[in-house]
Design brief:
Layout: H1 5-13, H2 18-25, H3 29-40, E1 42-45, H4 48-60, E2 70-73, H5 87-97, E3 103-106, E4 128-131, E5 135-136, H6 137-145, E6 151-154, E7 158-161, H7 164-170, H8 177-191, E8 202-205, H9 208-214, E9 222-225, E10 232-235, H10 237-244, E11 273-277, H11 286-300, E12 309-312, H12 318-331, E13 337-342, H13 343-351, E14 363-367
Parallel strand pairs: 1-2, 2-3, 3-4, 4-6, 5-7, 6-8, 8-9, 9-12, 12-13, 13-14
Antiparallel strand pairs: 7-11, 10-11
Helix pairs in contact: 1-3, 2-3, 4-5, 8-9, 9-11, 11-12
Length: about 375
């Protein structure tokens, strides 16, 4: 009597040795497919050279590509500034070949405008996405199409949007950082309405503006914004391209024959808004910082699910941190895990006999 095929798949999933899986795959036709599925289920690309090898293997053995469900591209430090070859074009083709891909983790390409690499993904394909690419129009379009994502990590703190409706006002030199954030939040909410990412449960971002735009109206239960801060600096599209490289992919409305010389074009500042979370600046008062965090917490409370885990940068003096903590306890009463609290604040709380007013918190994460 033969065993059910599902049992072979279960057995192979518990085999840790890739050598053993290769041996099983060649042992019999019955177990070949389950062993190959376990062998190629998850791929980790450790370097650019390794990535090219995977691309070649996918072209040579296309029958393996439907088996890949998880892909991770690790940071290649030696090639971090190499943007001249066609590596990312090959990765784009690779992603389009992995039709069953559900989990994508890209640690390479930090703060680069490379979201066009994700164009090959099918709508609704991903369940989790981690990437370090700039948050630009290309990435927004990808997020709109991936309606099954429940776990999203965006590690870039740069927002680069070609939205003429907000850029002309937000680029004013007399604008305050929080005013600029409001324009960005409004634009992101307009382009990422609740119909986009409707299943989002876990969000990890370095931008409070992005968190404020995404949490309301979605069932977010775990929110991490550990490095996100209050202040934001602004650059024009011209400065953005010079800082982050002329190789940044732009839309057809941004390209021109004269642009190759690197000169800014008339109206350029009205086409693009580029923001980078820069940390509290010298002129940013504690009062403004606290007010911004309180507003952000009010937005987080609009999640359609109870937020049970919150990691937030609370680099504030004791009084400011205490006010924010009090507001957290009022707006997020179901919180179970809270971070990141400077250890000095907790010590001062104890010395002054302050008691945290969180009824449901079971763990507090500290930083030095």
């Amino acid at each position: 009597m033969s065993l059910p095929t599902e049992l072979f798949y279960t057995i192979c999933r518990h085999v840790c040795s890739r050598k053993d899986l290769r041996s099983l795959a060649s042992s019999s036709r019955t177990i070949q497919r389950p062993a190959e599925a376990a062998l190629h289920n998850s791929i980790i690309i450790s370097s650019r050279d390794h990535g090219r090898q995977i691309v070649c293997a996918a072209r040579r053995y296309p029958r393996f590509t439907p088996l890949v469900k998880s892909l991770r591209l690790e940071l290649d430090v030696e090639a971090i500034l190499d943007m001249q070859d066609n590596y990312w074009g090959e990765i784009r083709m690779l992603l389009s070949a992995f039709e069953a891909l559900e989990h994508l983790d890209i640690q390479d390409g930090l703060d680069k405008p490379l979201a066009w690499v994700l164009d090959g993904l099918r709508p609704g394909q991903l369940k989790s996405l981690q990437c370090t690419f700039v948050i630009d129009d290309e990435l927004v379009r990808v997020l709109r199409s991936q309606t099954y994502i429940h776990d999203l990590t965006l590690k870039s703190s740069i927002i680069h949007l070609s939205l003429s409706s907000i850029a002309s006002h937000a680029l004013g030199l007399d604008s305050h950082a929080n005013d600029i954030d409001e324009h960005v939040i409004h634009a992101l909410r307009r382009h990422l309405d609740p119909l986009a990412l409707p299943r989002l449960h876990c969000l990890h971002t370095e931008s409070l503006a992005l968190a404020r735009a995404l949490v309301p109206g979605r069932p977010v239960t775990h929110l991490w914004a550990p490095g996100a801060s209050f202040s934001t600096s602004v650059t024009s599209s011209y400065l953005y391209r010079h800082i982050y490289g002329p190789q940044s992919r732009r839309t057809s409305t941004e390209r021109s024959d004269n642009d190759s010389a690197g000169e800014p074009r008339a109206g350029d500042e009205n086409r693009t808004l580029s923001l980078r979370q820069a940390g509290p600046q010298i002129h940013t008062s504690t009062k403004e910082h606290v007010a911004y965090l309180r507003t952000a917490l009010d937005d987080f409370a609009k999640s359609t699910a109870d937020i049970v885990s919150l990691r937030l940068a609370l680099n504030l003096p004791f009084e400011g941190a205490q006010e924010v903590l009090t507001h957290i306890s009022a707006t997020l009463p179901t919180l179970r895990v809270l971070g990141f609290l400077p250890s000095c604040i907790v010590e001062q709380q104890r010395r002054q006999s302050h008691v945290f007013t969180f009824e449901s918190v079971r763990a507090i994460v500290l930083i030095e």
